[in-house]
Amino acid sequence: MIPFLQVPLFRTQRHSRQQRRKTLDRDVIRLAASEYRSDPSPAFSGQRQDTSHGNVTRMGLANIAGPSRRQLEDDARLRSSPEHYSWEEDSPTSRTGYEFPSEPLATRGLQTGQQQHGRNHPQRRPSNRDEFDGPHQLLAIPPADVIAAQEQNLPHLPTNLLVNEQDDILSQVNDCLSRCAFNFVAKYQFPIPLEPDKRPVGTAADREWNEWVYLLKRLATKRRIPARVLYNGQIKQLVTVLENSLEMRHAAKHQSRPLKDDRNVLQLISAGLQVAKILKDASSMAFLDDLYVRTEARIQSRKSNPGFIGQPTSTSTV
After folding, report:
1. What is the distance, to the nearest Å, from the Cα of residue 108 to the centroid of all Cα atoms in its chain?
2. How many CB atoms sit inside 10 A of residue 184's CB?
3. Which whole-number Å values give the CA distances from 287 to 28, 70, 190, 265, 305, in the listed order?
4. Range among 78-87, 164-173, 238-247, 276-285 rated most confident
5. Total Cβ atoms within 10 A of residue 234
6. DSSP string of 162-215, one letter each residue
7. Which helix (H) or strand (E) holds 7?
8. What are 249-283's pLDDT values in tens digits?
9. Pairing assessment for the beta strands 49-50 and 55-56 based on DSSP bridges
């Protein structure tokens, strides 16, 4: 058994053997070319040269005439070391198991790659396709009388609040909800991510109501808000309640919007009241409840006053 430490020596000898083979091929080429120039016989006509490696192929050597071929090979072998030639042909170390074959490793790597690429990965759906492009169904078109009834002019809903009155009411709700969210986050020390384009929060007015909603929704979805700090532990309802109040900020900040009907104004106040309730803010609940009662009383007084000219509008409001 040959010691393992001799493996690098064998590899070095193998590299030397390859270099001497290349020398042998170059010598054969030079001698063959010199003979061909001196005697261009048909025996060399079938010789082919492998341009990729610069060696004469075995088919070319086979086509050389018998005596010339033996002479060329004998001359080339004399230039090589006899000891190396003896080791290459007869030494048992040239046939040991230390020279690991590369083909099985390459084959195993190829099989491994095929197994990796052959795993069952779900096929990605193109970005411009969705579930509506797959199997679907279409409902029957409604009867003509149903469509005609739907396309009639929309009824006018009562609108008894003036523009400045609606702006004042919705601004109060917006400011109240911002204070409610600010106190809730400060009380339980919830983290507020720092943003490079915004200043740190010092007061409730440093963030718009929609920004407070986004912060609370992220805290809820990341499970940073424990259920015990909410009304009846309604952690699943928190996101829905917050989204219902998002129209508040839009209505308060966009003064060029169409007028809202009375029911819509009361609905927005009620949505803010639900936010204060689920955050268990008693003072905000009391303020919004009082605002709701006063607004409803004002609407009723306008309805009962025949001399008040209301501002009717359709339901196509923002």
Report:
1. 33
2. 23
3. 106, 113, 25, 16, 27
4. 276-285
5. 13
6. -HHHHHHHHHHHHHHHHHHHHHHHHHTT------TTSPPP-SGGGS-HHHHHHH
7. helix 7-38
8. 555 555 556 889 999 999 999 999 999 999 999 99
9. antiparallel
Indicate the Cα dihedral angle 295, 312, 166, 296, nearest 10°. Answer: 10
CA distance 203 to 181: 11
Give the H/E segment covering residue 79.
Answer: helix 66-79
Nearest to 243 by CA among 212, 222, 284: 212
Residue 209: both structure tokens together: 């109501």
Distance CA 237, CA 165 (A): 31
pLDDT in tens, 95-128: 444 444 444 444 454 455 545 555 565 566 556 7
For the chain, give percent helix, strand, coil, nearest 5.
65, 0, 35
For 288, residues 6+ apart whose C-beta sits below 8 A from its C-beta are 173, 176, 269, 272, 273, 276
Q: Look up residue 107 and give its two tokens.
A: 């084959």
DSSP run (H or E) holding 56: strand 55-56
Cα-flanking dihedrals φ and ψ of residue 157, to 5°?
Answer: -100, 150
Size of the chain in residues: 318
CA distance from start to end of the chain: 91
Are the C-beta atoms of residues 252 and 171 closer than 8 Å to each other? yes
* pLDDT bucket at 247, cuts 50 / 70 / 90: confident
- Taking the CB of residue 50, how many other CB atoms lie within 10 A of it? 13
Structure tokens at 150: 């739907």
- DSSP label of 157: B
Structure tokens at 15: 């590299």
